[in-house]
Write a structure and sequence with these properties.
Elements (H helix, E strand, L loop, with lengths): L12 E6 L5 E8 L4 E6 L19 E6 L18 H12 L4 E6 L3 H10 L4 E7 L7 H4 L4 H12 L4 H5 L5 H11 L4 H7 L2 H15 L4 H11 L12 E7 L7 H10 L3 E6 L7 H13 L8
Parallel strand pairs: 3-4, 3-5, 5-6, 6-7, 7-8
Antiparallel strand pairs: 1-2, 2-4
Helix pairs in contact: 4-9, 6-8
């Protein structure tokens, strides 16, 4: 007998804009139209439909999610680099009439949030990185799962093999099994992924984000495997890292290294939390971003 269908939260707006190079950039909005604007960068592979499923936690926030190139409704960007992303974000902010805003990067969205904090500090009030991917030094590379280590090596030396290999997991049921493997040793993650609202949302998000191919995922993999193109230590924007000490997907040492290098960064270590702490600490993250709305806030 199948479990009952769970009705997932729908975005208030789900549309796209056309960038100056004629690419389509898809985005969605959640929460309050007059709330404090926050642009959210999804993980890898994921998309703009990944969201916290409780509408009550969006009080006072205009939460904007956006597909990176090659994901969901956003067109591919050949030879994309991490430092290209802030230009797309600035164009989206202009399109939405936002002078300043906060950014939140989850997992693979973390480096993209840092890129924006570095490139457009006059617009990014605060940047939160949640369970974020860090710089892949040889030491940290050893901490990744064997499959991910293999993926990084392929991305560095034979990137043309990425898409056919990634395609082997290109369906939501295999994605769900991959999640199960990641959280096998983490009770916190296991409890989150067993929630019907989270599970149904993640499956729907996966289908939308990767339904037309794994272009976005392959592009992200190449970006993570190579130098980022900027020094995180030069970021002056206020940063906060949230990372679980039981994260089996992204080693906490990545967050520690980045938080210790940037002058205005802090690290919130969440005891017992795994990779999916975003769903338990969403409101804390929102409130920290909102606290930066005023100039000179601590």
């Amino acid at each position: 007998m199948k479990p009952p269908q769970v009705e997932t939260m729908k975005p208030r707006i789900d549309t796209a804009m056309i960038l100056s190079d004629s690419r389509r950039l898809a985005y969605a909005e959640w929460g309050e139209p007059e709330g404090h604007p926050v642009i959210f960068f999804h993980g890898s592979p994921s998309g703009r439909l990944l969201h916290h499923p409780d509408p009550r936690d969006y009080e006072g926030v205009r939460w904007i999610t956006v597909d990176r190139p090659g994901y969901g409704g956003s067109d591919r960007q050949p030879r994309r680099q991490l430092v290209d992303w802030p230009r797309d974000v600035a164009a989206l902010a202009d399109h939405l009439g936002l002078e300043t805003f906060g950014v939140v990067g989850l997992s693979g969205g973390g480096p993209h949030a840092l890129a924006c904090a570095h490139a457009i500090p006059e617009r990014v009030r605060r940047s939160a990185i949640v369970s974020g991917m860090g710089i892949l030094t040889p030491e940290l590379l050893k901490r990744l799962f064997p499959e991910r280590r293999l993926g990084v090596r392929i991305a560095r030396w034979t990137p043309w093999l990425l898409r056919p290999l990634i395609a082997l997991t290109a369906n939501p049921h295999r994605a769900e099994r991959a999640h199960a493997k990641v959280v096998a040793q983490c009770p916190s993650d296991r409890a989150i992924l067993l929630r019907p609202d989270v599970r149904e949302m993640l499956i729907a998000n996966w289908k939308d984000a990767n339904g037309s191919g794994l272009h976005g995922f392959a592009s992200d993999a190449r970006i993570f495997a190579r130098p980022w193109g900027f020094d995180p230590a030069a970021i002056q924007t206020r940063l906060r890292f949230w990372h679980g000490d039981s994260d089996e997907s992204v080693p906490i040492e990545m967050a520690r290294a980045l938080a210790s290098s940037a002058p205005n960064a802090s690290l919130e270590v969440v005891a017992g939390a795994g990779h999916f702490l975003f769903f338990e600490h969403f409101r804390d993250i929102v409130e920290w971003i909102q606290a930066g709305a005023g100039a000179g806030s601590a």
